[in-house]
Fold this sequence. Notes:
Number of strands: 23
Structural class: alpha/beta
Radius of gyration: 25 Å
Amino acid sequence: MAKYIFVTGGVTSSLxxxxxxxxxxxxxxxxxxxVTIQKFDPYINIDPGTLNPYEHGECYVTEDGAETxxxxxxxxxxxNTPTSQxxxxxxxxxxxxxxxxxxAGDYLGKTVQVVPHITDEIKRRxxxxxxTGNYDIVITELGGTVGDIxxxxxxxxxxxxxxxxxxxxxxxxxxxxxxxxxxAGELKTKPTQHSVKMLLEYGIQPDILVCRTEHRLNQDIRxxxxxxxxxxxxxxxxxxxxxxxxxxxxxxxxxxxxxTVLAKLKLPTKNEPDLEKWKAFLxxxxxxxxxxxxxxxxxxxxxxxxxxxxxxxxIHAGAEHECKVRVKSIAAESINEENVAxxxxxxxxVLVAPGFGERGLNGKLAAIKYVRENQIPFMGxxxxxxxxxxxxxxxxxxxEDANSYEMDKNSKNPVINLMEDQxxxxxxxxxxxxxxxxxxxxxxxxxxxxxxxxRISERHRHRYEFNNAxxxxxxxxxxxxxGINPDNQLVEIIExxxxxxxxxxxxxxxxxxxxxxxxxxxVNFVAASMARATKKQ
Length: 537
């Protein structure tokens, strides 16, 4: 029977529940336990797929095509195991399910209420993964902050579930903030005390406090927190600010968070944590032997979380080469034909990011034209690939109005077209081409050298595709379709023949990059950029 850990947050949002959950899971996994993590989000959207990236950061896509919270990216990057639809649940999904059951008459005419109907559905979802028999421990991160109105049903469901499971089969970790007041020159415990008091009002006593802090917690502070929050002193865990999120598992190991958790769940501390590969990765991240600068051209660069997986993939790939990858974010709207050389000056490679809509399109096209003509390593993802196709069509094939059907429905040369199975879709949510699809790679191409295999699987999130009516024309001019979906002949990868590195994919390679397995496209892109940096010296 699986054991359950619930992670709640207090005082303020953005304290890093996802990183703490992923770090604890990594420690437990390194001791030989089978662990998974799930995220329960309190917003009413069915999923984050329709949310603007400025609202919620990137939308992370799983192998089975679920559009999920970006924290699932952390879970996969830390644990190196895929998540699924079951790992992310929103209030909207819960209510939709309950309302559908009510409409079908499943409640036999009873009044449908938050308690018990909504909370029962939450509890059912919380236990789904644990009932598969695949996991020893299930960690559930609750989005939001204790005291938020929208989080209340989730907190109540945890209270009920803890009562049903018993103390040795479940525990609650409360992540909180211990702020430092510079004027007083001291750390303050009162916000944490109030946060725990609020949790107690909901009927939940936290078992462990993880305290985010800019300064070290001395023994007196720990005793005070333990006394007034009614936890053991060894259950007051310091979570100091770290230079990298990948430091956090080792910091939690030092604080013995995993041992405390296992003791409270009455599980043996079997095996010492095997973190040698993790430490080796961190060593490479912190002690690079070289450095490059990559330009990230996108629409949402003001919010780093909008391209979270891309930034993390560069860290993984950089570590593989013991190279520091400095990512310079460049707003696509700020680039034009006149200033493109200045904007991209000093860069060793350029990545054009995914996105939707026309805003920033011309800037992306200008950047791609510049790197193509100046032999600068280029990588395109999703819309980035489509922009590469449009730019090549306009400037090499002389198709002046080459465009995407998404941007111009009246274009005479829609080199990027709406996918056939998308033409009759009216609802926007969860209807794109989502999840993992196969791709066959042509022998003798750069893509074949990058992947070292001829059949791969990558994750998708798009509605538009390369228009195969133009394929022969493109290939004759030197843009090769080096990756093709075997089922529908969809062009998955394009590359240029006479260029040091010009490769773009219709899929999202960043979603499959982990600490243990950096994605080969990023690894090779970084290598090409390093070669350019060396050449320029």
